[in-house]
Amino acid sequence: MIQAKDLSKTFKDKKRGTVKAVDGISFECKAGEIFGLLGPNGAGKTTTLRMLSTSLKPTSGTAMINGVDVAEEPEKVRGQIGFLSGNTGLYGRLTAREMVTYFGKLYGMSASDIKLRIDKLFSMLDMQEFADGRNEKLSSGMKQKVSIARSVIHDPPIMVFDEPTTGLDVMSSRTIVQFIRKCRDDGKCVIFSTHIMSEATRLCDRIAIIHKGKIFADGAVDEILSRTGVDNLEDAFIKIVGE
Amino acid sequence: MRIRTVETIFKKEMTDTLRDRRTLIFMLAVPIAAIPLLLIVISNLMTGQIEKEMERTSMVLVQGMEFLPDDLRGDLNGAESFTIEPDANSDLNDMIERVKSGEVDALMVVPRSFDKAIALESPTEIEIFYDEAEIRSGFAVDRLDSILASFRKATISARLQQHEISEDVIKPFDITSRNVASMKKVAGETLGAMLPYLIIIMCFMGAMYPAIDLAAGEKERGTLETLLVSPASRGEFVVGKYLVILSTGTVAALLSMVSLTFSLNYMASGIMKFTGEILSIDFDLATVILVFMIVLPLAGIFSAILLSVSIFARSFKEAQSYITALNMFIILPAFVSLLPGVELDYKIALIPVVNVSMIIKEAVSGSVQWNYVIATFVSTNVLAAALLYLAKKWFERESVLFRM
Ligand SMILES: Nc1ncnc2c1ncn2[C@@H]1O[C@H](COP(=O)(O)OP(=O)(O)O)[C@@H](O)[C@H]1O
Ligand SMILES: [Mg+2]
Predict the structure, then answer these.
(1) What φ, ψ does residue B43 adopt, rounded to 5°?
(2) Is the pTM of this model over 0.95?
């Protein structure tokens, strides 16, 4: 469902000059699987995911999302994607219901569809209790649930998670991890970035090791381990990247 | 651009904004209550001060009291509003020092043989020393003046009679100047000059917080990215957000127009009860509509600029500091309406902010010149539209949205 071909992105930075954040990467991600982008800070994970979700335009290369080119029909691509990152926040002065409804409308859903979907999501996530209080009053775990509901209000076939557990406590992390698994089980195509090796091992069906904007290896976790002849991803990473 | 989507964005942002305490303060509380309250307090302090000074008896030091003609001395001593302190011995400089230090309100110096000079009809002079910077000193001079003037008048009449000359001889003709300006215009020129300045500032302030919250706030909360991955276009977000900012700015401007009119009139009636004629601004619904029509595109200019500055900033704080700097560029041109002698012409009608300031001033003084209203209306709208277009382009730049 996702095919990235030779994707590249260069930024012009005042201090550092031109920065090749993503440098010709290609990968594929199918429905019903969790694909992980694993790499340290500054590897180019966020930039890659932003190109897939069309908030950044690729400098060169293409990506097809469910058969649609991100550069040619970005609006069409956006409707197919659900997006959640560790830094996405909420509108504090709105209630969960108001906020999720707003996004439903932005995704062009009808009022009755939004209502049905909200009822389903809110009971699935156990949110009915706090759905009508202002977001700013919620605990971090509750906030996370609101973010989750927001990201899937339009029931997208593809989910993009950018370091979704960064900065979260154990309970909220667990909620997110369970949610990611559920997305896969529902047959969605899930792409997910992390710098935490153990998280990747635990969650991903396939991974790509990304460093300095390039993909160094990809495949199932077991494959990568057997190819490098070590027993954990950390060592595999060092070996592959060669530092 | 889909109207439905813009409407969705507008409604959400409006709800959100109207729940923001800071916005409500600048959009409602400051224009309706704070500014008028400030003006009323200042005015009460001022009139209270003037009243106090008027009730006070003036202390006047007189050198050469003994040289005053009897009736004049009698008038001075008899006047209730004076305490006269004759002083025959002190040095003139010491006496002037006492005026300077505020110990006495005025010093009157009567020359030696003043009474004889009056009797002999030879020229002579009374000097009064006072402190212009002190209201009470000014009052003392006014009071002395009126007593001396009536003595002078009586002396002239007596002399003319003695020489058997008709009073008409010294009055070859009268000069009468008649004011043709309506009271409305006079009020407009004075009080009305303050209105546009304050209305424009309030408009800017009313638009300021929503603009910060709706753009820089999205970055700070981490909600911007969730908007960017939704199918709504950047242009739709710009227009939806712009319309909210435009509304709060316009509401703040119109509310301040009404509440300021009341408080300026109150202030004027307080101060002017001492000078006789009471000025007041009053305008009809047509004036309010005219001001609305001209303030709306001005709010449009403000909104587009504020939105662009705000989305450029990386955080709420950063946006605030940019906008504080921007403030100057609004306050100075708005100030032009307060300058005497500035008249509208086609050049001024093309200068943003200044033109609106002048049109509001003319509108409240009832001397609208339609050609300039139209020129201002057109130029302000064109600029607002151009800035909105630029804001949209600005919102489409990755280097602005994802500024490192
Ligand atoms: N908007 C931007 N402007 C300039 N440089 C950027 C921008 N976004 C990312 N970068 C740079 O691109 C590189 C990759 O960043 P990023 O994709 O955020 O990495 P990751 O998400 O893997 O930590 C980094 O060197 C980063 O500094
Ligand atoms: Mg990142």
Answers:
(1) -65, -40
(2) no
